[in-house]
Amino acid sequence: MVTTPLRTTKSEEIFTAAKKLMPGGVSSPVRAFKSVGGQPIVFDRVLGSHIWDIDSNEYIDYVGTWGPAICGHAHPEVISALKAALDNGTSFGAPCVLENVLAEMVIEAVPSIEMVRFVNSGTEACMSVLRLMRAFTGRDKIIKFEGCYHGHADMFLVKAGSGVATLGLPDSPGVPKSVTGNTLTAPYNDLEAVKKLFAENPGEIAGIILEPIVGNSGFIVPDAGFLEGLRLLTQENDALLVFDEVMTGFRIAYGGAQERFEVTPDLTTLGKIIGGGLPVGAYGGRRDIMAMVAPAGPMYQAGTLSGNPLAMTAGIKTLELLQKPGTYEYLDNITKRLSDGLLQIAQETGHEVCGGQVSGMFGLFFTSGPVHNYEDAKKSDLTKFSRFHRGMLEHGIYLAPSQFEAGFTSIAHTDADIDKTLAAAKEVMSNL
Ligand SMILES: Cc1ncc(COP(=O)(O)O)c(C=O)c1O
User: Which residues form a coiled coil (predicted)?
Assistant: First the structure.
């Protein structure tokens, strides 16, 4: 376990060099710690629920490479399956039986998915599903929710969450108004606002896309009846309902949030866990809609590395591991201990917080709450969060470096990990 202060000499050296080589020194913005301040740590290796940085500090990890590491990092069975697959080559660019195996597993697991197309990232899955929504309905407008993140494609960079929220970027330069003009937005959990948008744009809305549990403005759950209400509204307006389960798929339940909430969308996007730590995304849904996708139908979408054997192998092995009885009970129990413990410690130490968890996903806001949407989330005391984040880091606990990101646990997290985390939180919160 790390004791303060952290050794950071090598991290600082490498990150300083990285800043000269790559914008902001990173390959993806939130990693740069801009919203929490201080130097990011540079990772050296990961195993199970733990990570080690380049200065040999050890941490308990609650980021899990932003969700994929649900079985713990570098699970030995995933690694040995990958080693075996490697001997057959890294990419075929042609049909391979592993695609069938993972497709069957996804179709069997996720209630809405009758056919699936593999891509290489969550962003790619979401931008492709949007094209499909438009192709199928012949309509251009879509509804998304404030603070929901669906990857970095132009038409989604409107009131987006994740790094866009973290860096306080409401939009991005370079995104033409003509592209975002068809993206309508509503506050999360606000059915009336959605009704109004349908009324104001009759026959023009292709559908609604949302995170069925939000993880990109911090952790926000849908109010009772919200998902059901969206299902009804889309049906009444001949529009499609799309769940972006890039984060929640195979995490909230084996069949995703749609299994847990018993609301079946028309289309679903996936990513993260189905790649088992390798780059994968997917979109799928009703057979009649998926039949529009090339080469079965006219909607074009393609990918050189899509369905590549290594990514398929890591995904298959990860899903096999998740199928073991008790997986989701374990995730739920361990994450509840963590979340309840954090809330209790905050209360005992006199901090206004709110938060919660579902399965292996959790969040904590520094505001009394309740948090139903992004506007509520923004009331969180970000300075306090930054101090909390740094304090936890110095105690060997690696949390997402932004208030506007959910936390993740894995089946590799142990009661001992939770005990250590809560002990650290007690010390840090007492001195905030
Ligand atoms: C809900 C959701 N959709 C889409 C994406 C984009 O996925 P990727 O980063 O793999 O492009 C993310 C990424 O965090 C996400 O959380």
Answer: none
